[in-house]
Amino acid sequence: MSANQEAALQKEYSPQLGQPPGQPNLNLLKTETRTQENPEEDPVLIKIENMSRVYHINRGRKKERFTAIQDFNLEVRQGEFMTIVGPSGCGKSTLLDLLAGLSFPETGHILIGGQEVKGPALDRGFVMQGYALFPWRTISKNVEFGLEIKKTGKAERRRAAQAYLDLVGLTGFENRLPYELSGGMKQRVAIARAFAFEPQVLLMDEPFAAVDAQTRELLQEELLRIWEKTHKTIIFITHSIEEAVFLAQRVAVMTSNPGTIKEIIDIDLPIPRKSGDLKSSPHFNWIVHKVWKSLHNQEDEELRETENPDIENEIDPDTAL
Ligand SMILES: Nc1ncnc2c1ncn2[C@@H]1O[C@H](COP(=O)(O)OP(=O)(O)OP(=O)(O)O)[C@@H](O)[C@H]1O
Ligand SMILES: [Mg+2]
């Protein structure tokens, strides 16, 4: 990201804020961990109704329309951790762009807290696959970015940045520049930056795809720990079914052509979660299998339409992993 892009970002976000100069609520870090038994009682925060997204493609003089998402309906509750899985090209990143307000639906509505999304704003934080850190800013200054836009005072910004860097295990690295960190550390900075300005909603697009397996597991646990403490609403896209199940309260499975929600699977695993024993438990693996089946049935279904319409494809727990 260049200095010009940073200035553009500042400009893009600032008029949309509609929020008073904000002080980060560091008390959130001191709250009890999340143990709520009945998350379905939380109010709906994000509501997507009959939404479609069409790309208009210029081919010389010809204009083509490509419907990336259609008949899309989804509700996400306040404080919920939802993961989304689906085949490549099914519209996951398109969906996150829409939620971020970086693009707009052709039809339908996207409501956050009852308000139509009209553009980017600081009620939503975005963590992308690339770390997208500002290379000329120190780690601490990267984390302070959203707070600067919110016009939070300097001392408070420092305090918030430090608190979130401590939370992601980067104490002592505050004055480093991004190039001096490993991939996993950069991703932690991106997470600290997204949480530091206290957005209501965290949108994460395959944030751990570029790190090694061990770091990924650590980051998953860290993210869960932060979520349990801050009660943020998180929508997290991943290609890893295991990751989707480990992190989420519900996994949304998407189909492609055009992209839509196929099924939402409840994850009834206890909170808090620790990967070790949980990931090797039969129940965890049964849920992973269930999501895998849901994802792969769609490919089977496409085949069966022409081959054998009567194949039984119910999930049988006895034959699960
Ligand atoms: N700017 C664009 N113009 C035209 N078509 C686009 C554009 N961006 C995405 N698409 C198309 O929309 C569809 C959905 O793309 P999207 O990037 O949302 O998929 P995805 O589910 O995130 O895939 P992946 O898992 O590979 O990241 C794809 O068919 C893609 O080719
Ligand atoms: Mg994508």
List the helices and strands and how they pair.
Blueprint: H1 3-13, E1 44-59, E2 62-77, E3 81-85, H2 92-100, E4 107-112, E5 115-116, E6 124-127, H3 139-149, H4 154-167, H5 183-196, E7 201-205, H6 213-230, E8 233-237, H7 241-247, E9 250-255, E10 260-266, H8 275-279, H9 282-304
Parallel strand pairs: 3-8, 3-9, 6-7, 7-8
Antiparallel strand pairs: 1-2, 1-4, 4-5, 9-10
Helix pairs in contact: 3-4, 3-5, 4-5, 5-6, 7-9
The structure holds adenosine-5'-triphosphate (ATP) and magnesium ion.
Adenosine-5'-triphosphate (ATP) binds next to β1, β2 and α2.
Question: How would you sum up this structure, described in words?
Answer:
With 321 residues, this protein is α/β, with parallel strands linked by helices. It contains nine helices and ten strands. β1 (44-59) and β2 form a beta hairpin. The N and C termini lie far apart (44 Å). The model is unreliable at 13-22, 27-36 and 306-321 (pLDDT under 50). Adenosine-5'-triphosphate binds next to β1, β2 and α2.
